[in-house]
Design goal:
Layout: E1 5-12, H1 24-34, E2 38-45, E3 60-63, H2 68-80, H3 82-90, E4 94-98, H4 100-104, E5 108-110, E6 116-118, E7 126-129, E8 137-147, E9 150-160, E10 162-165, E11 172-176, E12 186-187, E13 189-191, E14 194-197, H5 203-206, H6 208-221, H7 234-249
Parallel strand pairs: 1-2, 1-3, 3-4, 4-14, 5-7
Antiparallel strand pairs: 5-6, 7-10, 8-9, 8-11, 11-12, 13-14
Bound molecules: glutamine.
């Protein structure tokens, strides 16, 4: 036995769901794991390709964002994975989903042409876009979240036409930007092992504590220590401070 600690991440459609560098979230997780002596083993799941990953053996399932076209492209393939994803979710696998990926885990996404893309129905929320393609929520966003039992401001960038309703447990309270609906009070969806959000950034590079929260959860679930050695996040913290200041001044 090598004694090397490891976590497994299943990256769904890495070449289709990669808006605004969302794939960077996987890089951030890999780096922050590596700095703690944990190897993050990433397996991709590609469109219309037989599964090479055992969904039940994963620690994290990740879906990035994608525009309406990409969502249409992969909808059938994603539905064919429904039972495996639902079982993993039930089993406590951590699920991180951004924007287009977030929408497809709900009941459905009705796009700006009125086309209804069925979701996996894992959660009760549903999403509808305005028929006016210009009617989108675009810009920087800051939300107040409760992670690791504490208060943490999560910063990102949103660009979505979809308006998500019937969200039982939102990820955060909107301080700046829109969130689930235009001018709304709440953003995203959260459970102990789920973060679904409209925030690109990529999300985890702007919010390193969120990345550590996910890693800690996964280590704990494996019965290993959830304590992670602190990293030098001075640059990230300076960027966060600057962004939070700028965005709170520009309401
Ligand atoms: N197509 C979706 C929308 O516009 C998702 C876009 C995204 O992933 N940024 O609502």
């Amino acid at each position: 036995m090598s004694g090397q600690k490891s976590l497994k991440l299943l990256h769904m459609y890495p070449n289709v769901l990669d808006l605004y560098g969302d794939g960077g979230n996987v890089e951030v997780l890999k780096y922050r794991c590596k700095m703690r002596g944990i190897e993050l083993i990433v397996t991709p799941h590609y469109l219309d390709t037989p599964d090479i990953a055992d969904f039940s053996q994963q620690d994290i399932i990740y879906l990035g964002g994608g525009a309406d076209y990409e969502q249409q492209l992969l909808a059938q393939d994603l539905l064919s994975c429904k039972d495996k994803i639902a079982a993993a979710h039930k089993n406590g696998v951590f699920m991180l989903m951004i924007c287009g990926g977030y929408q497809l885990m709900g009941q459905y996404y009705k796009d700006s042409n009125g086309e209804k893309i069925p979701g996996l129905g894992l959660f009760s929320y549903y999403t509808q876009a305005s028929r006016n393609k210009r009617d989108r929520c675009i810009g920087n966003i800051v939300i107040d979240t409760q992670i690791c039992g504490g208060d943490y401001k999560v910063i990102g960038f949103e660009n979505h036409g979809g308006q998500t309703a019937n969200v039982a447990t939102p990820f955060g309270k909107v301080l700046h930007g829109n969130g689930n609906v235009r001018g709304g009070e709440f953003e995203g969806y959260v459970e102990e092992n789920v973060i679904a959000t409209y925030l690109h950034g990529p999300l985890l590079s702007k919010n390193p504590r969120l990345a550590d929260h996910i890693i800690s959860y996964c280590m704990k679930r494996k019965g290993e220590s959830a304590e992670l050695a602190p990293l030098n996040d001075k640059l990230e913290e300076a960027c966060r401070k600057q962004l939070l200041k700028r965005l709170s001044e520009n309401k």
